[in-house]
Structures are given as structure tokens and as C-alpha cells.
Amino acid sequence: MGSCISQPNPLNNHHHKATTATNNNDDYQVADPDLTNMIGRDLNSMKETMTQIQKFVDHMNVQINQACEKFEELKTREGGSDTNELDQLKMSVNKLKSQIPSKLKIHYDDDSKPHRKPWFDDGSINSSSGNYQVDVNKAGNLHSLYNQPKFDHTPALADILVSFHSLPPELQYFLNFFMIFPEMATMKKRFLIDWWMGERVLFQEPADIDKHLANKILDEFTAKGFIEPIYKNCGLVVDSYRMPPYIRSALTFELEGHAFDYFPDIRFTCSERCIVNIDAAIIDGRHEIIFKSGTDVTVVCLGRWQNSVTHHIEVPDIKILNALKNMKQLSFLSLRGISMITELPQFISQLTHLKILDLKACHNLVVVPDWIGLLENLRQLDISECYLLDHMPKGLGTLYNLQVLKGFIIGDSRDKKSCTFDDLTKLPWLRKLSISTSMKEFPTDLQLHHLQRLKFLRQLKISWSGCILQGKTNDSPKRAQLFSKRTTLTRSSTEQHDPELSPSLELPSLEKLELHCFPETDTPSWLWSGNLKNLKKLYIKGGLLRNLNKIVATGVEMLQLKYLSDFQMHGIEDLRRLFPKLIYFEKVECPGLKSFPSEWCLDEEMQNR
Questions:
Q1: C-alpha to C-alpha distance for 147 and 326, rounded to whole angstroms
Q2: Does 398 or 323 have the greater pLDDT score?
Q3: Angle CA(348)–CA(351)–CA(353) in degrees, nearest 5?
């Protein structure tokens, strides 16, 4: 495949600028001042973070040493240790253990985990089963060798390449994707799947086949040590992946020039089928060469792929996007996190092959046009965190194939130009929905009735505006101010007495439910229903909720409670009573739960699965 690369301009600091001025070079200017400021903020943030980490480490060391002293005293006590004291010490040790971030914990049963079986043992090849594997945990010698000139002559390099060539050609192609990004870059699992779907290398429907196939590919790469999984929730969930640097260096010898070209400081990379913004903060005329790609391009990711929400990208002139208008085969378009986009270019309505449109965190976007309904093949639309939007276009209701909709706004239902909940019921395959509303009484009976009609809905997120997260100081006031522009609706008597409403008003059969800034103090009646027997994940973040005493969701396995200043729960007994199948629990800044660890697994066996 061909390639085109745009190299960054060199950055110089203000001291350098002053020196240059002294040398009578009046034409010199600092390149990308926004990018320079962003780097400065990142460096300061890292320094502050490391200071806090050191304080945490010092505090933990003091507590661990005290526990060790107590343990030695109990072990050597004459007459034997008191059982009650040992029990108390065990609880203290468990509490300390739970405060250590899961990704830093040492797992002593790695050999029992299929995705962590070694490929090398102290540098030697393990081929007893015919499968070549590299141990990412034990191959420390590779970490020190990979960037040395002699690395290309080591047996380790040869073994990695043998393992690579044992993969089928299609899996070699998938592994290529990790080579595009900077060393040790963390790639979101969802982003990888969306990209692969956009490249049309995965099945397009049904959705569970896409996810199943992608998981099989990622599991195989993990099992063979080509990538490392990044866990969250006590190691129960794989959220992201990254490629170890020695693996990346080894494969660079083999893959360079095949599908993509690799450079140490690229801002953009592109091939015959995709364009990806690797690290460009400003997208302007300097990158025009990127948009001279052919009409067969299927993936354009100009927006943020990084996990950090502070990663700044902007388009000073929206007209630069018009260079994409001839890419009629485009399947995946991401403008995530790009500033200065106030409206969507009209040509996007002609991209009828588009399946994924990501507009998340386009903070200057003021309207989603009604022609969005022309994208008849659209499967996923993300318009969340676009805080200037105040209504949804009617055209959303015509996206028959839509499966994921994030950022739907409940506005004034009396506006005939706005998409309503009733319109959403025309989307038969919708399985994931996130909603922002200024209605304190949301959902009303009629809205619950419409929700029930979404038979395939499995994940639901509801965010109420006007309630600032306790303990958060980022953009919550701004968010509340922007949301306050929306019309607050009240339950009408027509809704309450509509004869067509189901006598049993409850949520659909969900697997995951998120409630952000819930405005009431008591458990809402729509959580009393027994229809939540399939609910596995319940996340509640911010708001006035005080308890979950009446909830009927006995199948919940993962519970997160964050920034709930008034929430009360007496102890573990309450948790086990409400959620007998609970595996994972997390709380953040919940003063009424002081006796609970911040993160822990109720089932030790599940913690290490």
C-alpha cells in the first residue's frame, strides 16, 4: 500500500525564541502555540500527579510496615495468637490490598491464566505444543535490548518473527494496526473494533458477531504476547491494549513498508484505505496532502483516539473537511474532541456507506442537521458531550439500522422539528442508548412506555443536568450552565391517564444501567420492577440519591457508586442482601460509605479469573 506522512514542525521554547531574536532573526515564530501550551500543561500535571503518587506510596508503606510488625508480633507471641486479632489483621490487610491499583498488583497465579502463559522462559523458546509464545512478564532482557543495534541479531528477535509468521495472513494484517501508534500507546478496545469494522475486515452484522470475532482476535494476540491487556475493575474487564516496545521493534523489521510506513514523530499516517490523526493538535492547510488520498478510503479518524480528554485538537477552518467529500466509500468517520466545528459539512449526507460517525466532545457543535437521516447504513452515532446542542433532529428516527446512539437529548417534545422518544421506537435494532435530560421527573410514564418498546435495548445511560458532581471541579458548572438552556418539562395529566399505556411501566430488560446526577433522594419506582433480573452492571455517579433499598436487581455483579454525598449503606450485609451475585464494588467520594474499601472484589476467586 502507498503511504503519505506529514512531519511536525520543530517546537522551540520561549528562551530559544529570545536567543534567536538576539541573533537578528526577526522572522522566527514559535510553532503551534496551542500545542506548546498543551505540552506545558501536561508536564506540570505529570509533576503534580507524581507528587501525589509519592505521598500515597509513603502513606501506604507506613501502614504496611505497621501491619508487618503486628503480624510478626502475633506469630511470635507466647501461648499462640488470638484468633480474633488474626481476623482483624486479615481484614486490615485486605483493606490495604484493595487500595493498591489493580494494574500494579502482582498476580501469583499467572500460569493458570490462558492469556498470560509464557512464550519464552528466561529467553528460551517454548515450542512443546508447536505454538511460539513470548512471555511479556519474564522477558526483561528484551526490554533492555530492543532499542540496541545488536537487537536485530538476537535469537529473541528471530523467535518473535517465527511466532508472527505462524499467524494466518489476516491476523498479521490486524496486528499491523498496533504498529501505527507511538510506542506504549494505550488503545481503547472499542476504538480498535470500530476501526476494524470501518476497514470492512470484520463482519458488519449482526453486532454480536463483530464483537465476538474481535474478542477472539485480541485474545489470540494476548495469548501469544504480541499485546498486553489493560485491566480495570479489579482485573475483571479488559478496557484497552498496548504493544510492548520490544515486540513493536521486532515487528518493525518485518512490517515496515507493507501496509503503513513508520516514523518516530509522525503527526498523520494514511494508507490506501485509512487516514489517522496520530498526534496533530491543529488540522489546517499544512495537512492538505493527507486529503489527496483516493476515493477508496474507508476510515478517517481526524479526532482524538487517546484516552485523555485533555488532548487538544482543533480545525481553524471547517472548509478543510471538504477534502473528504469524494470519499464515497467511507465507513468510519471520527471527529471526536475537535474544537471549532460549529456545524457538519453538507457532504457528509452523501456518505451513504457510513456506518460509524463519532462526534463526541465536539464542544462547539450547535446543531445536528436533519439530513442525518440520509445516512441509511449508520450503525453507531455518538454526539455525547456536545453541550451546545439543545435538541435532536427529526431525521434520527429514520436511521433504521442504528444500534448505538449516545448523547440523545430530551428537549421540548412540543417542538415538531425535534426527535422524540416516540420517534426512537422506530429504531428496532437499538441496543445501546445514552440520554441527557433537564427533566427532573424523567422518565415519565409515557417515556417508560416508549422505552419498553425498544426490545433490543441492553445498555442505558441517563444523565440529568443541573446537579453538580460532588468532589468534581472540572467542567461541571459549565455543563450545568449549558444544560440550563434546555426546557424543563413536567409530567402531564394526559401522560398519567393515557389508556394505551401499559399497566406495568418499567425499564426494558437491560444488562447495564448508568445513572448520572440523579435528582431524587429515594429509589425511583421504575427500579422496583422485577424486569431488571438480567441487569449485570449498575453505575451511579453524582446526584442526591440516599439509598437503593427498594431496588429489584438481584443479578447485579458490578456496582459503582461515585460522588454521592448523601448515600448511606450500613455494611456488607446490605450489599449481599440487595445484590447476592455481586462480584465487584467500587466507591469514590461517598462519605456515608467510609467503612467500605474504595475498590474490591467480594469473591477472591473471581478477582483472579
A1: 42
A2: 398
A3: 145
**Cell reading at 548:** 437503593
Closest CA to 523 of 493, 553, 489, 480: 553
| Sequence letter at residue 70 | K
Give residue 201's pLDDT: 63
Side-chain half-sphere CA neighbours of 363 within 13 A: 11
| Helix H or strand E segment including 56 | helix 33-75
The pLDDT value recorded for residue 386 is 93
Q: Which residues of 526-557 are buried (b: 16+ CB within 10 A; e: fewer)?
A: bbebebbeebbbbbbbbbbbbbbeebebeebb
C-beta separation of 539 from 513 below 8 A: yes
Number of Cβ within a 10 Å radius of residue 509: 15
pLDDT of residue 533: 85
CB atoms within 10 A of CB 307: 14
C-alpha distances out from residue 27 to 22, 484, 573, Å: 12, 47, 71
Residues in the chain: 609
Whole-angstrom distance between the N-terminal and C-terminal Cα of the chain? 41
Integer Cα distance of 425 and 174 in angstroms: 37
The bridge status of strand 537-543 relative to strand 332-334 is unpaired
Q: Can you tell me the distance from the alpha carbon of 536 to that of 553, in angstroms, rounded to the nearest whole number?
A: 8
* Residues β-bridged to residue 332: 299, 356
- Cα separation, 309 vs 307, in Å, equals 6
Greatest C-alpha distance within the chain: 85
* Confidence at residue 357, expressed as pLDDT on a 0 to 100 scale: 97
Cell for 228?
A: 498486553
Q: What is the pLDDT of residues 29-77, one digit of tens each?
A: 445 666 677 778 778 878 888 888 888 888 888 889 888 988 888 888 8
Could you give the percent of the chain with pLDDT greater than 70?
Answer: 67
Inform me whether the pLDDT recorded for 200 exceeds 90.
no
Is the dihedral angle over the CA atoms 458, 463, 468, 474 positive or is it negative?
A: positive
Higher pLDDT, 244 or 307: 244
- For helices 169-179 and 207-223, the axis angle rounded to 10 degrees is 80
Beta bridge partners of 462: 435, 515
pLDDT digits 0-9 by tens, 346-377? 999 999 999 999 999 999 999 999 999 999 99
Residue that wins the pLDDT comparison between 147 and 576: 576
Position 346: which residue type?
Q
Q: What is the DSSP string of 402-450?
A: --EEEEEEE--TT-TTB--HHHHTT-TT--EEEEEE--TTPSPHHHHHH
C-alpha 55/C-alpha 49 separation (Å) is 10
Structure pTM? 0.70
C-alpha cell at 208: 454480536
The reported pLDDT for the residue numbered 463 is: 94
Instruction: Using the Cα atoms of residue 556, residue 561, residue 567 and residue 572 in order, give the sign of their dihedral.
Output: positive
The pairing of strands 313-314 and 299-301 is unpaired
Which range of 30-34, 491-495, 558-562 scores highest in mean pLDDT? It is 558-562
